[in-house]
Amino acid sequence: MEATTAGADALVATLSHKIEERQALLGVIGLGYVGLPVACRFAQEGFQVIGVELKEERVAAINAGRCPIEGDEPGLAELLAEVIAAGRFRATTAYAPLAQADVVLINVETPVDAHHRPHYAALEAACRSLGPRLRRGALVVVESTIAPGTMDRVVRPLLEETSGQRVNQDFHLAACPERVMPGKLLHNLRTMSRVVGGSSPQATELALKLYRCIVAADLDATDCLTAEIVKTAENAYRDVQIAFANEVALICEAAGADVWRVRELVNKSPGRAMLLPGAGVGGHCIPKDPWLLAHGAGGRAPLRLLPAARAVNDFMPLHMAELVVEALAEAGLRIEGARVAILGYAYLENSDDVRNTPSEPFAERLRELGAEVRIHDPYVRAYAGPLEEVLRGADCLALMVRHEPYLRLDLGTIKGWMRTPVLVDGRNAWPSAPGFIHRGIGRGDPRALGRKET
Ligand code: SAJ
User: Fold this and answer.
1) Number of structural domains, the chain?
2) At 1, is the pLDDT very low, low, confident or very high (cuts 50, 70, 90)?
3) How buried is residue 128: exposed, middle or buried, by Cβ count under 10 Å (0-12/13-18/19+)?
4) Ligand 1 pocket member 181 (CB < 6 A)
């Protein structure tokens, strides 16, 4: 046992030195919106980086120095071209080169299934492919967002079984969850603090030394479980905050008040920071991370708030459909056969990212009710045609995303294109809309209250 420990210490010392000298060979599994920027940043700092990616067309684009990530990512395309030209980064579909890697980062997708359970096929495949090639003494870092307990119950056993090696003896593990946001990938990577959770103090030290090469912000040392909980909890926290704002919006509608004025005044109270009510919550993180966090309890904790917040937020696109039905009725129209123009299909303003977009359940609900649905989005190629074509002859305009170009629209012009001037505002883009029958999330109508009481 002594010999092994002495051997293990020597391996740690060697790896620590190689990281310090930027001589460690770095492998990155998964070259998506997290893996690609992090591979480029380490290459920029002088490391030799090998990226392993399933999609051949993505590998080809990267090796040609072309950034496969759409949308506006300041600096990323230039950085990729630079490190490819310098020969410090290359991509492949093969796992074989990872046999030489001293450090391997895992950045694969970790979605939840229809029953809100983690779907780890990609993570397990990555561990099974890496294991047989895992270099003795290597550090493996999982950057993907995972349910609490996954490092210990999924990643470690899989790597040990497929490599025949022992964690903390022959190789080292850490969880260092990504904190990226589309549109700010490189910026967040450098400026946002990172939680670094190691399988042992030595693993934590190695991971801290590694991330100090690319992160200018705090690196917070902890263990794997804490790191897994922090990441999922920080996003569950946001989901609950948004759900609170949405529930207050629904109350304001029912009570005949304006949630936007309410929010402004609530937030003048110390320690309050009510978020924005809206047409729903989409994206790659917020809708799934509360379920990953909940999964970590293993059924041993009563979960009421997280599922309730998810239900509130998932209801908002359906509530948008209710507002469309109500506004059309005021115009004397039934939803059946009405033409509804949806403005915004991305999940976030000024982004082309459509993952888990609330516009999908909204469109589905309208079609179920018999409406004819048209979609426009200046950032999503499939819907980026002329806005006038989508709005001409429409009976209702429903705004789902506060894209910058929409905020500059002239409502008078739009009214001239439409068959019926009905507007439903899901993101408080237009506090008033003269000449329209107007509904909005959180915009209660004091007059309606009077009608209901009589
Ligand atoms: N949304 C609301 N009301 C709000 C804020 C957001 O309805 O007040 C909706 C958005 O329209 C969108 C969804 O929620 O559909 C998610 O929006 P988001 O601003 O949270 O954007 P994401 O999904 O890119 O969140 C990421 C997360 N960052 C990481 O996971 C590292 C989140 O924790 C960050 O707070 C967020 O970026 C950010 O603002 O940086």
Assistant:
1) 2
2) very low
3) middle
4) yes
